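Worked problem 6 (solution included).
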Amino acid sequence: MEESTKDKIQGNVNQATGTAKEKIGQATNDPGMQDEGTVEKLKGKVQEKVGDIKKVFED
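Solution. The predicted structure is:
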């Protein structure tokens, strides 16, 4: 599997995990968990974009 594909997959996983943490934080009124989820979603978005950039240079 190409490195860019791995980055994109991991980015999507991080975004999904972040979304889940945000929802759990909202449901349990835990701002720390919400913030952790927001950070993880952002990390996933960045990682997905890194995968997009790597894809350009792999071709």
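Discussion: The two ends are 14 Å apart (CA to CA).
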